[in-house]
Amino acid sequence: xxxxxxxxxxxxxxxxxxxxxxxxxxxxxxxxxxxxxxxxxxxxxxxxxxxxxxxxxxxxxxxxxxxxxxxxxxxxxxxxxxxxxxxxxxxxxxxxxxxxxxxxxxxxxxxxxxxxxxxxxxxxxxxxxxxxxxxxxxxxxxxxxxxxxxxxxxxxxxxxxxxxxxxxxxxxxxxxxxxxxxxxxxxxxxxxxxxxxxxxxxxxxxxxxxxxxxxxxxxxxxxxxxxxxxxxxxxxxxxxxxxxxxxxxxxxxxxxxxxxxxxxxxxxxxxxxxxxxxxxxxxxxxxxxxxxxxxxxxxxxxxxxxxxxxxxxxxxxxxxxx
Length: 322
Prior knowledge:
Helix 1 (3-22) packs across helix 2 (35-50), helix 1 runs antiparallel to helix 7 and helix 6 (193-208) packs across helix 8 (230-239). It is built from eleven helices and eleven strands. Residues 1-7 and 44-52 have low confidence and may be disordered. It is of the alpha+beta class. The chain is globular and about 50 Å long. The termini are far apart.
C-alpha cells in the first residue's frame, strides 16, 4: 500500500464510504467524481468496500483519464529543457492524480515559451463565449490548453498562483522551496509541503469555494507530514492578505477529520459559507489598503465583485433553472 495512504488517507476513505453505505447514500456522486479519490480507493482495497472493485464504467473512465494524464506528463518531460516550471496541485505518491495537469511557469518568459511549445505540439487554448462577463478558461494568470482527440489531459498553464488576476502565493518562494518528487514513475519538481498547502488553501477559498474529499486528503497528508511550522504557513498567507482564510482552512480540516472519525456524519463536499468567503475577501482588500498596495487592492476589489456576483446571483439562478 502507498506510504501516503498508510498515514491516514485510506483510513478516511474506508470511514467515509462505509458511512455512505450505512446511510444508503449513492456512493460515486459524493466522491465528487474526484480521480484522486478513485485512485486512492483502488489502492486501499476497493474490493473489500465494493465487492468486486470499481464499477466497470467507472473503471474504464478512470483508466482512460489516467492514460491521458500520463501522456500529458510525458509531454511536459519533453519540454523541461526548453522552459522551467513546477507541477502544482498534484499529490506525488498517489497512483493517479487527476484529470488535468496544473503547471506553474518560473517566469513570464517561461510562461510565454510554454504557450508556444504547447501550440507547436497541437494544443489549442480553450476559450469561453465572447459574450460571457467572465471567462472560466482564461484569466490574467491562467490559461487552459487542450489537445484534439482527448488522448492527453488538459494543461492548466499558470503564470502565477492567482485567480482572476489576484496573486495569493509568492511564485519565487514556490520555486525556491521546490523539491523533486516521483509522479507516476516520472520525476518532476513540485512545491514544498508548505507551499503546496498554501496553493491548495487558496484554490479552495478563491476558486472552488468548497472542500472535496480529495482536497481534505491532500491537506491532511500535508499537515501530517509536519515538514513546516503552522505559524510559517499563516505568515506567508498573511503576506498576501488572506491569513484569515488560511486559518479557516485549518479549522475546516479539523472539523472534517473529527466528523469522519467520530460523527455526526458530514457529507462532502463541504461548501464554504458565503459569509466566510466575503469576510476573507474583505480582509484581503483591507490588508492591501493598509499596506498602501493600491493597485493590488483595486484589482482584488474588481475581481471579488465578479466573484460575489457568481456566488450570489449567477450560481443560484443556474441551480433554479436547472
